[in-house]
Design brief:
The complex is a heterodimer of chains A (121) and B (279). In chain A, 43% of the residues lie in helices and 21% in strands. Chain A has 121 residues and is of the alpha/beta class. Chain A has a single domain (2-117), classed as Rossmann fold, CATH 3.40.50. In chain B, strand 7, helix 11 and strand 8 form a beta-alpha-beta unit. The longest helix of chain B has 17 residues, at 80-96. The chains are: A alpha/beta (121), B alpha/beta (279).
């Protein structure tokens, strides 16, 4: 079973994403900001991260840069999932090392197709 | 739904598009046609059917046919067929058509354009190997409404995310308000045409690859056989026919056989291939 860390400051979004991803057989952990997500990764690196952009304490892009700077054997696959939907944000995310990018709102089909493309499903 | 209402509409659809609706699809009919009824200011689906009984308005009937034959589509639908195109079909054509440096692809039920645009993106990605080649993509559908949308290449954020890798979105789309539009360069690669699969495809010419995915399911077996026979005459002897994941030629047509080890791809049966090669 693959593990996925869902990082979003909205409890509702985390719950919806959890439901969808559990349907694809992921073992789910949650974090409500980038700092908590980073702490989680230091303790236990997931296979995948579903990542919001705008969060208190530490944003998604700051988290991603810190994550990619970590010296670990297996970097997780990171899929952004955010209301930021302009080309500039998408480019910045990919440049910082994101593997895929989902623009909210999302549904099960979008999650499935994006996770399939990056080889998680 | 009233069975005689169902019969009337189902009969009209069969006659106009070949679409076969079994009585258990009554809900589909009602849900899809209620928006047409609203557009035409009928109070209900029943009232629309009554009006059709009284007078066969050609424009209304064609809108009904379009509403029933329009299908949801997404980029790189099912993934695998496009991997096969990149890894098997394209390398074959690069070798087999090296002398004339051209080939033709037909997307035979292209709906809102996601299938031909996915192919165009794959070809664009393989551009370095295709310098000097002339590649035609003909994309057809019964519905003018979906073809207009396909030509425009304008997709909602939802549509633009379904199946489309973000790197390809970045490369081939521009943002237009809350929509995403495919680049003029890709739109130029495709010729969109209205075409009814019940007609003979002879006028469209010869093809090297035909995509006929997720459309045969709507026809009855004799119609399926007839469509496949027509396709067999337009396909090059070493050409490729794609069907949808839930479709097969088995028991429907002996013109094609499954390509070994390549799910979803069909080739002309031995005799047909030999005949075409000898002619």
């Amino acid at each position: 079973m693959k593990s996925c860390l869902i990082v979003d400051d909205s409890k509702v979004v985390r719950m919806v994403a959890r439901k969808i991803l559990e349907g694809f057989n992921f073992d789910i952990a949650e974090a409500e900001d980038g700092q908590k997500a980073l702490d989680h990764c230091r303790a236990s690196m997931p296979d995948a991260v579903l990542l919001d952009w705008n969060m208190p304490v530490m944003s998604g892009i700051e988290f991603l840069r810190a994550l990619r700077a970590m010296d670990v054997a297996d970097q997780p696959v990171v899929v952004f999932c955010t209301t930021e939907n302009d080309m500039k944000h998408i480019q910045d995310a990919i440049q910082a090392g994101a593997n895929e990018y989902i623009m909210k709102p999302f549904d099960s089909e979008i999650i499935q197709s994006k996770f399939t493309q990056v080889g998680l499903i | 739904m009233n069975p005689s209402d169902f019969e009337l509409i189902a009969g009209l659809l069969k006659q106009r598009s070949g679409l076969v609706l079994t009585p258990d699809k009554g809900y589909l009919l009602e849900s899809r046609l209620s928006s047409v009824a609203r557009r035409w200011d009928f109070k209900s689906f029943e009232e629309m059917v009554q009006s059709i009984r009284a007078k066969r308005d050609e424009k209304l009937l064609s809108e009904i046919t379009e509403a029933m034959t329009t299908n949801e589509s997404f980029f790189f639908r099912d993934t695998k067929p496009f991997d096969q195109f990149r890894d098997l079909v394209l390398p074959h054509l690069l070798t087999a058509r090296a002398a004339k440096r051209s080939f033709r692809i037909w997307s035979a039920a292209c709906s809102t354009g996601q299938e031909p645009y996915s192919l165009a993106m794959l070809l664009k990605e393989a551009e370095s190997k295709l310098a000097g080649w002339r590649i035609e993509i003909i994309a057809t559908d019964l519905s003018n409404e979906v073809l207009d949308k396909a030509k425009e290449g304008l997709y909602t954020q939802f549509e633009a995310q379904r199946g489309l890798p973000i790197t390809l979105l970045m490369k081939y789309f521009t943002q237009a308000g809350d929509h995403w539009q495919i680049s003029p360069e890709l739109r130029k690669m495709i010729t969109f045409k209205t075409f009814n699969l019940l007609e003979s495809p002879a006028s469209l010419g010869q093809f090297d690859v035909i995509f006929l995915r997720n459309v045969l399911i709507y026809f009855d077996p004799p119609t399926k056989g007839k469509i496949l026979e027509g396709m067999s005459r337009q396909l090059a002897s070493d050409g490729f026919l794609y069907l949808g994941g839930a479709e097969t030629v088995l028991g429907v047509s002996d013109k094609f056989k499954p390509k070994q080890g390549q799910r979803g791809i069909y080739e002309l049966s031995q005799t047909e291939g030999a005949l075409a090669a000898a002619s």
